[in-house]
Design a protein that fits this description.
By secondary structure, the protein is an alpha/beta fold. The protein has helices at 11-23, 35-45, 54-59, 62-70, 85-94, 106-146, and strands spanning 3-7, 27-32, 49-53, 75-80, 98-101. A five-stranded parallel sheet has the order 2-1-3-4-5, with helices on both faces.
């Protein structure tokens, strides 16, 4: 089961997203209203998914970089009621993996997370296959040089 942490200043939004994630089969290991306590939860639980409100990111842009550095395999989802092209571009540049729109529609939230997880797994498999192919090519070249 994938573990998730929710960081959002709105208790209502945290509660609703918590319910959606739990009903979708995710293990919500922590939720908080500040980035500082969110980072403490990340240290404690080492989650796979971090859902963080846009306001939290904009108030402390270093938080995404810190999450990416400390938990490189964690998927970061920005949560907001409004997204524009500039915000999405800036978020991607920071390392945000996906976007969850308020008000929450359970199917949409779960599909967004699922599709992002699948895309990440496909990228990892492709990278491993590429590395394995490169290793095989180097091995073949070494054997040919020995002949």
């Amino acid at each position: 089961m994938l573990k998730a942490v929710i960081i959002d200043g709105s208790a209502i939004a945290r509660g609703l997203l918590n319910t959606v994630l739990l009903d979708g089969g995710y293990d919500v290991v922590g939720q908080t209203h500040t980035c500082a306590s969110g980072l403490a939860l990340l240290l404690k639980h080492n989650p796979h998914i971090v859902c963080i409100a846009r306001e939290q990111i904009e108030n402390g842009e270093d938080v995404v970089r810190e999450i990416k550095t400390g938990w490189p395999k964690a998927l970061i989802f920005m949560v907001s009621s409004e997204f524009d092209a500039a915000t999405i571009q800036a978020a991607h540049a920071m390392g945000v993996n996906g976007f969850i729109v308020k008000p929450f529609k359970a199917d949409t939230v779960l599909n967004t997370i699922r599709n992002t997880v699948i895309a990440m797994v496909k990228r990892q498999r492709a990278a491993l296959a590429k590395d394995a192919g490169a290793d095989q090519t180097e091995s073949d070249a070494g054997e040919a040089g020995d002949a």
